[in-house]
Write a structure and sequence with these properties.
429 residues, alpha/beta, Rossmann fold, 2 domains, 6-stranded parallel beta sheet, 18 helices
């Protein structure tokens, strides 16, 4: 039976599709991938038999050092592909904390989204860890959208500090010990919300359908109340659809500092960062803003139709190297999935395959851990606010993934995706 590699997922509607893509590519190289919720996969990584590798989704100073140390003792190869590898918030020094020296100590390979991150943060690690610029499968080169035939205006929000499903008190309690400016982040988000309401009010004049795609941790009920005042009734609020499905039907995309801007720009959509002087720019994610066309309330007030907005975009869109520098999107770059799987294979190819008995035992162990965690979450865990966020993060995972799928690859072999409990097993036969 194939060697096992574990792939944790924390935010299913953002991460699951790309983790499955990587798993399918690994299956072609003889691996069995197990994809599941981060809490379940990390527990299983310490309990299962003969785990060969763990594809981490991001370093967390609270838990990663101890967890990586234990995996190291079990001789599990650790590979790091950060899911937030371009969330660069100046006042938080965010990326520097995602790529600390200890990460490189334990990992066999650290994958960077772009050369800019490698040059700045790769120097943190001076060990034998390989540092590879791979890009990220979420931001792969895709065909441009013919947006002129679309009518929908999409607004993407990322206001989880001020509009969190678990409330402001929980945010302060959960983050204050590790983020000294959490109240400032909440205040900045409240300004973002007010800015967005002004934006919606202006866009309602054009009678185009509007989709408000909110962040997975935001309280959707807040937005339902806020939009009641607008005369345009053709407003949809969405917190679960895959962003690619939303973008393919979009004419224009607005955001403040959301990484959805990158998804949008890759597809050639007119993309605006809607800002104001009231916002603290040092608390915003700078990279998506750089990749977008800047606009504010005053500039937008002078535009009286969607056509005028599109003309404004064509005249003012930025021509910079954000996509190539931070996301490895160049004419000569490999597809991220290919780059990642080739590098993982180069490290693990000489390890022995597991026996069929080990394979069955691993599935049994995974299912037992899954059942125990479900019991704990339902009857013992009292962290109700934290559980609200957890359920939202994984809603897409359980709602939309089929129990069994089979597809044929170019080698005339079958790729199997089998869902058992809260685990998705991907392998080739």
């Amino acid at each position: 039976m194939p060697k096992i590699i574990l792939l944790p997922v924390e935010v299913a509607d953002r991460e699951l599709n790309t983790r499955i893509k990587i798993s399918e590519a690994l299956a072609k190289k003889g691996f069995l991938s197990i994809v599941g919720p981060k809490d379940l996969i990390t527990t299983y990584a310490l309990k299962g038999i003969n785990k060969r590798a763990f594809l981490d989704k991001g370093f967390d100073i609270r838990s990663s050092p101890k967890f990586f140390f234990r995996l190291n003792k079990l001789k599990v190869n650790i590979f790091s592909l950060d899911e937030e590898g371009a969330i660069d918030i100046k006042k938080l020094d965010f990326l520097n904390r995602r790529y600390p020296k200890i990460l490189f100590k334990y990992c066999s390979i650290v994958f960077f989204w772009g050369n800019a991150q490698l040059l700045k943060y790769g120097k943190n690690g001076k060990t034998n860890c390989k540092k590879i610029v791979s890009g990220h499968p979420r931001f792969d080169k895709v065909r441009s959208i013919n947006y002129n035939r679309n009518k929908t205006i999409t607004i993407c929000t990322n206001f989880g500090w001020a509009n969190n499903i678990s409330g402001e008190e929980w945010i302060i309690k959960n983050y204050k010990s590790r983020i000294n400016c959490v109240e400032d982040l909440i205040g900045n988000d409240k300004i973002k919300i007010q800015n967005t309401l002004k934006l919606i009010k202006k866009l309602c004049d054009f009678n185009n359908p509007i989709i408000i795609r909110i962040h997975h941790e935001e309280n959707i009920n807040t937005w339902k109340k806020l939009i009641k005042e607008f005369k345009n009734k053709n407003i949809t609020i969405d917190n679960s659809s895959n962003i690619s499905d939303i973008l393919k039907d979009s004419l224009i995309v607005f955001h403040c500092d959301s990484t959805v801007a990158i998804d949008s720009q890759i597809r050639g959509l007119p993309t605006f960062s809607y800002l104001s002087d009231k916002l603290d720019k040092d608390l915003l994610c700078d990279i998506p803003i750089k990749a977008s066309c800047y606009i504010d309330e005053n500039l937008l007030s002078n535009l009286n139709s969607v056509d005028e907005i599109l003309d404004f975009y064509r005249l003012n869109k930025r021509k910079d190297d954000t996509l190539s520098n931070y996301f490895n999107l160049t004419d000569n770059s490999k597809e991220p999935v290919i780059s990642i799987t080739e590098e993982i294979y180069s490290i693990l190819r000489n390890k022995k395959d597991d026996s069929f008995l080990i394979f069955i035992l691993n599935i049994i162990i995974y299912i037992i851990i899954d059942i125990l965690k479900i019991i704990n979450n339902k009857f013992l865990d009292k962290n109700l606010d934290g559980n609200k966020v957890y359920k939202l993060k994984h809603k897409y995972f359980w709602k939309n993934f089929k129990l069994f799928t089979i597809s044929r690859n170019n080698n005339k072999k079958n790729i199997i995706k089998l869902k058992i409990g809260r685990g998705i097993y991907v392998f080739q036969i």
